[in-house]
Structure prediction request, 615 residues.
Amino acid sequence: MCGIVGYIGHREAYPIILKGLKRLEYRGYDSAGIALFDGSDIKLSKTKGKVDDLQNRLEREIPTKGTLGIGHTRWATHGVPNDINSHPHYSNSGNLVIIHNGIIENYESLKKELIKRGYTFKSDTDTEVLVNLIEDVKKNEDIKLGKAVQIALNQVVGAYAIAVFDKNKPNEIVVARLGSPLAIGIGENEFFIASDASPFIEYTKNAIYLEDEEMAVVRLEKGVKIRKIKDDSLVDPYVQELKLNLEQIEKGGYDHFMLKEIYEQPNAILDTFRGRMLPNEGIIKMAGVEDNMKTFLNANRIIVVACGTSWHAGLVSEYIFEDLARIPVEVEYASEFRYRNPVITDKDVVIAISQSGETADTLAAIKLAKSRGAFVFGVCNVVGSSIARETDAGAYTHAGPEIGVASTKAFTTQITVLTLIALRLARAKGTISSSEFRQHMIELELIPEKVKKSLESDDYVKSISEIYKNAGNFLYLGRGYNFPVALEGALKLKEISYIHAEGYPAAEMKHGPIALIDENMPIVVIATKKGHYEKVVSNIQEIKSRKGKIIGIVTEGDQQVKALADHVIEVPETIESLTPLLTTIPLQLLSYHIALMLGKNVDQPRNLAKAVTVE
Ligand code: F6R
Prediction:
């Protein structure tokens, strides 16, 4: 899981690659490197650390001249993050240089063979094996780089997006993909290579997304020639016009992407239901659902597969689908589902939820479900992502790019899409009346304004964060629709502040976690008026009698919890099924402020990456 960037054209490559790598740091940031062709030779600099560390080192180490280059920001898989294991990697002769995102699973056996043939290796990486395999094939068969890459990749088992060039042929870059994304930006006799379009969006809106098992030779003057890696057949390049703009990608005046993305939620939710929901006409239309209505209506059950925050959105959908559409739902961690030999039939509908659309376990769960005859529907944010393409049908969350590693707007827009689907199915099945259906739509339409209102608690949440920032543990409690929100609140806190936090169904507290409660334990309790309110109030009383510190998330105007809790954060009133869209907001802000006060890197927490493309 890494970010790759390449450039060949008439401009200086270095600034383009450097800026591109900074935009791709969400994909990994434990080391970085750039290789440039200076007109006669390859100049390479790489280092453990972030792209800023690379910039400091590179500008002292090598000239930054050249109109051809490749760069990489890494999230280590094979070999610890250090200078030597950083990409790019040279071949033994020094003629070839490569960057790679993915894992070559059979690299050890390939390495043994290459060692027998006299090759030596400096790093512990699978990537250095691949570049030498390409060199070996090229040398033995005296063929062009593109052909050598193709033959080498046919010997490889694993996943990759690669870019490689030869210093003796500095008018081309060869790229290939299997399982890791790769886009080619097409300019005026200049080409950009990247893991997504963000590195080249200000230079061109025209891009080709390589499909799995495709490779391309990107050549100055001649353009892009795409082939199937396996059978060598030529593929007609499909050039897409990108809708993404740079402003959407950059921080837009906020200190961090995470904060920007938290504040983008009113619009993101609006964009997600806009055009799909027409309350006045009493209509919800989503092409992916309409086209497959029979399959949905005949389904015995829905199985949701996802990871992390997306799994939490899946848990919320379990309540929504069962409540509104009366369809049984099972929510599975994709990583467990795929290895469990699950019972799946062609009467099952699988919904795969993923912000990035690249999560390896979710992708594998989809493939498994499809192979057993299930219909698979995707809920993704990244357009054209692997999951979006692998599923039978789907609906995008229109959240815009999410760069902060901690997922925020993806969660609320996933819930929005899932609510629309549940409502549409409920109406088709007749499990809700037309007035209930209309009422839900009217309430959903009000949500963006209510999210804005919830964001007004920001300063107050900040003052609470100041009080509890040094706590060693947090508990998050919720019931019903807000149980998954408790899990999500705990995940947000632990992943960016590194404070241990657990989420529980409020009533489960008595079965163990209550033993943890003392005067040092902050407990966030979601206690909105709709949804088991009185029961949650009893749980709050139990906490209070054990001296726990209570932070209540309550409905505007609440008095009962206010009288018991140490602090209350108000959110506007809505119908029960939509409360997660509001109660989530203060929990996101709480984790953001605590992490910031503790001096943590909010957008790039340690050990994490935005798209988990390894198992
Ligand atoms: C948490 C977070 C992760 C992701 C998970 C799935 O803030 O971002 O838990 O939700 O890695 O990622 P996607 O949704 O891209 O499949």
